[in-house]
């Protein structure tokens, strides 16, 4: 028996927000004071660090559960399964459904139930629920699906990562330029043969790190509403990730029984180009090796950081030959890895 990804899907919004569009924003410090640099310099530095040229925003009439539904339909079709046979629908997200120009996040009913409703699934034994695990939520959902199947309580699971971060960004915070919207989904099921999910690793660092990413007030002190926005301590996250993610990846690989030279691709959460490169470089240095060329496909330059959606979207694009220069073939060993709010880290070694 093998537990494998048998279908993938994604939804990439059509609306493009380019770096130049942020020239009209008034960026402020956390205390509400003006930044010393003009927007052109701020944007240029942002591009150099993150690698982001543009990002995607969902249409105003859509919410996170809509994006998740679109990706789910795509994955179900790709896997060629009967959706009534799904045992679990697991939706990784962080902020629920936030309608355009509203202040409140809506999570009742759960996004899992909303996706099941939109799919029109009648089977009550198909259990739908949400998973809040920061940006690593999709990987954690796959790990949970794997556990359900191993335990004999499921055969087919739909795991989705979806987010509409454009609805929770503070336009007066330069970090708002990082975030984007999108969704990715996979079908995980028990199959004949070998391969699939080989090993996994998860961790939560919450003693000192729990609030590195949080919900906070706007940088503009003139705004008096009670709305909260996604906020982060970027330097602390960077240092945390470089210290802890490579060792988690090594632990996961060592448990798999494969060698680092066996890895064909590393699909890492698209958080920040420089940070991702530094993580993978440090991972290889743990084995006294240099990072190979083309090991780390990236989409952040034109899709931005869509949180839980980045890795399943990246996987879908590669498997459907829509990411130039990257392929995954039968027998390839790859690694998924992510870090995000919590602070949470996880990884999977997978054989196609």
From TrEMBL:
Residues 253-351 form the Beta-ketoacyl-[acyl-carrier-protein] synthase III C-terminal domain. Pfam families: ACP_syn_III (PF08545), ACP_syn_III_C (PF08541). The keyword Acyltransferase applies. GO terms for biological process: fatty acid biosynthetic process; secondary metabolite biosynthetic process. It comes from the Bacteria. The keyword Transferase applies. Gene3D superfamilies: 3.40.47.10. Keywords: Acyltransferase, Transferase. SUPFAM superfamilies: Thiolase-like. Residues 129-201 form the Beta-ketoacyl-[acyl-carrier-protein] synthase III N-terminal domain. GO terms for molecular function: 3-oxoacyl-[acyl-carrier-protein] synthase activity. This is Ketoacyl-ACP synthase III.
């Amino acid at each position: 028996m093998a537990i494998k990804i048998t279908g993938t899907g994604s939804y990439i919004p059509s609306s493009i927000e380019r770096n130049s569009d942020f020239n009209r924003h008034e960026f402020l410090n956390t205390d509400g004071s003006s930044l010393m640099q003009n927007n052109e310099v701020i944007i240029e530095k942002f591009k150099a660090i993150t690698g982001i040229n543009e990002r995607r925003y969902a249409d105003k009439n859509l919410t996170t559960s809509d994006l998740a539904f679109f990706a789910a339909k795509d994955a179900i079709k790709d896997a060629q399964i009967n959706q009534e046979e799904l045992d679990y629908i697991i939706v990784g997200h962080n902020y629920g459904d936030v309608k355009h120009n509203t202040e409140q996040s809506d999570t009742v009913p759960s996004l899992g139930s909303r996706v099941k409703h939109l799919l029109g699934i009648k089977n009550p034994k198909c259990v739908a629920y949400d998973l809040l695990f920061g940006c690593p939520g999709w990987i954690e959902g796959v790990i949970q699906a794997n556990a359900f199947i191993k335990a004999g309580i499921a055969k087919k699971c739909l795991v989705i990562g979806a987010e509409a971060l454009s609805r929770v960004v503070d336009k007066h915070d330069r970090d708002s330029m990082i975030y984007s919207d999108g969704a990715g989904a996979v079908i995980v099921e028990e199959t004949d043969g070998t391969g699939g999910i080989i090993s996994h690793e998860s961790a939560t660092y919450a003693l000192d790190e729990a609030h590195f990413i949080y919900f906070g007030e706007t940088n503009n002190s003139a705004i008096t509403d009670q709305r909260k926005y996604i906020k982060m301590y970027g330097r602390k996250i960077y240092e945390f990730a470089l210290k802890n993610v490579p060792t988690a990846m090594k632990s996961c690989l060592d448990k798999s029984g494969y060698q680092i030279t066996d890895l064909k691709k590393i699909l890492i959460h698209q958080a920040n180009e420089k940070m991702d490169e530094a993580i993978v470089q440090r991972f290889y240095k743990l084995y006294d090796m240099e990072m190979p060329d083309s090991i780390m496909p990236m989409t952040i330059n034109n899709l931005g950081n869509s949180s839980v959606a980045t890795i399943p979207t990246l996987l879908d694009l590669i498997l459907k030959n829509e990411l130039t220069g990257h392929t995954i073939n039968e027998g390839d060993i790859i690694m998924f890895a992510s870090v995000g709010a919590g602070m949470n880290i996880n990884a999977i070694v997978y054989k196609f």
